[in-house]
Amino acid sequence: MTDECIFCRILAGEIPCFKVYEDDDTLAFMDINPVHPGHVLVIPREHSANVFEVSDAAIAATAKSARRVAKAVRATLEPDGMNLLQCNGEAAAQSVQHFHMHVLPRAMNDGASLNWELKPGNMDAIGALADRIARALA
Ligand code: DGP
């Protein structure tokens, strides 16, 4: 819990939310700036800022709850598709510094800007980056 973190304050009950699910490790509630109706946020109770800091247990619990919520959103709204999305850093449009996953129902041609066009990559560059990332994982 950090006093400045808005999601910690929601967890503490200091700020209201539209709760849809909770368990011992996570809370899921409606996003108040929904990209589309049915946009839900899933957060671990344990505070961490992002994917680089979250514990293995907390990210696993959050992913598990997010999938459970996604199934409920699908059953409720029958959207054309669904994104499970997680943002880290300003360039990735992270605005709240408490690790969270978006459960984001999608409609065909809804214009949400996180879609990108598929274009062929440079195989040499892709292979070289694969080597560098794999070395960082070794
Ligand atoms: P991100 O950009 O990935 O950090 O997403 C943060 C989301 O949190 C954003 O879609 C808006 C939402 N949000 C911000 N403040 C509040 C709040 O006080 N309550 C709720 N329910 N959602 C919030």
Description:
With 138 residues, the protein is of the alpha+beta class. The chain is 31% helix and 18% strand. It contains three helices and five strands, in the order αβββαββα. It has a five-stranded antiparallel sheet, covered by helices on one side. A hairpin with a 3-residue loop joins β1 and β2. The model has no long low-confidence stretch (mean pLDDT 93).
Question: Per CATH, which architecture?
Answer: 2-Layer Sandwich
Order of the strands making up the biggest sheet: 1-2-3-5-4
Total number of helices = 3
Provide the domain count. Answer: 1
The helix fraction, in percent, is 25-40%
Gyration radius, to the nearest Å?
17 Å
CATH class: Alpha Beta
Hetero groups in this structure are:
2'-deoxyguanosine-5'-monophosphate
Q: What average pLDDT do the residues reach?
A: 93
- Residue windows where pLDDT falls under 50 for at least 5 positions: none
Largest beta-sheet characterization: 5 strands, antiparallel
Q: Which shape, going by the Cα principal axes?
A: globular
Helices and strands, in order, run as HEEEHEEH
CATH fold topology: HIT family, subunit A
Strand segment count: 5
Strand content: 15-25%
